[in-house]
Amino acid sequence: MNIELTISGNIAAMKIDGILNSENAHVLQEKLSEVMQSEAKVLELDLLDCRNISSTGIGKILLFYKDFISKGGDIEVVRSSNSVYELFTMLKLNQLFTVNLG
Amino acid sequence: MGDKARILVVDDSIAIVNSLQSILSISGYHVDTAYNGSDALRKIYKNEYDLVICDIEMPGLTGLEFLGRVRQDFDRSLDVILMTGYLEHDYFIEAIRLGASDFIRKPIDTKQMIHSIQELMFRKGNRDDISGFFASLNKAKFCYEISAQNFTRFNISKVFNAHLRQRFKVNFDVINEVLVCVDEMVYNAFIHGTLGLSVEERALGHNDLQAVINAKLDNPAIHARNLHIGLEIDNTDESIVISVEDEGPGFDFTKWLDTVKSFQMLDIKEHGRGLSLLYHLSDSLEFSNEGRKVTIRKSLLHTGKHEA
Q1: Is residue B231 located within the same domain as residue B159?
Q2: Considering the domain boundaries, does residue B82 fall inside one?
Q3: How many CB atoms lie under 10 A from the CB of residue A35?
Q4: Choosing among B181, B186, B269, B273, which should be mutated to test the A contact, i.e. which has the most A CBs within 10 A?
Q5: What is the pLDDT of residue B308?
Q6: Who contacts B155 (Cβ-Cβ below 8 Å, separation ≥6)?
Q7: What percent of chain B shows pLDDT beyond 90?
Q8: Which pLDDT belongs to residue B1?
Q9: What is the domain-level CATH number for residue A61?
Q10: Does residue B188 sit in the same domain as residue B284?
Q11: Which residues does B contribute to its contact with A (CB < 8 Å)?
């Protein structure tokens, strides 16, 4: 699993590759903390090369989402793999934020 | 190897890709192409290749970064030859550390390249005999027992990934779902069943959580607990059965299972996401031994839930 994060003004762009699971979810948590501490108001998640996410990873995203919207932020999944798109749809996370496929 | 080798050529130079494609095709290999590292990664997760020939100096994901990602998921089972016009010392050390199979110097010496491919394919043929044996079995069963203390030293998903990819020909998308299931099962067995961490403890940052885990493992009762992992592959109906059992107090699984089956929406406060994922990714989900043991069955032919 690999995470690239760039923050420019009020946009944070995060690209996650590989499988996000309980063994590496803390890396995501650290990157999300960076976003939370920045001036960013929008987190753009690129999950095209993210092959799957376990519940621990989803938990980190949801915890971040809760804190981020409370300070006026928003999340958008700008691209996602088929498996992640299906997962987010199945869990109805697309009702919390925009999730784009491909 | 009876079949022609399948080679993926990766270079940001269209001229080099076209040239290598012609040479390798004439030499009898099946050739596919990619013009950057990210595209190449997507291709190797979708298609099966015997070998990748990849340029080191590419914009975006470099050849060394590509090699690092390949080794994370394939260990040594996929050979990667790196190409470079700059034979610098640092490249070699890093490439050897990452597990490059060989180097090709640019401009390319065709004879040397074909010789290198033949050598690697000969070695791969020996490895394929082993995976061929496993693929020919009607059934294969593996049972693992590991102490809680030793469990923390390993990345179990990586172990299973290597085990399944190297020994069995399993679709990548299915493997990804199997790995998520394994992660959910062992995480629950360790965090809940073995350590009995509270909600507050689980929400701690990484370093604080590690400190709590280490302190729990110092408790002789917890230290003595083991984890039992079972893996059964049935090639006759192309399914996999995975079980994970802890030696903790167990839990009332019926309430959780009923919730997961009847209520698919998970909100921020909801617990039981792992169980929900397991239920939706597997074809069957069962608990036994008072909740200490969880077993899933999953088709190796389909992703997601297979509606029989």
Answers
A1: yes
A2: yes
A3: 20
A4: B273
A5: 47
A6: A23
A7: 54
A8: 46
A9: 3.30.750.24
A10: yes
A11: 38, 41-42, 45, 69, 72-73, 155-157, 172-173, 176-177, 179-180, 183-184, 187, 191, 203, 205-206, 209, 264-266, 268, 273-274, 276-277, 280, 303-304
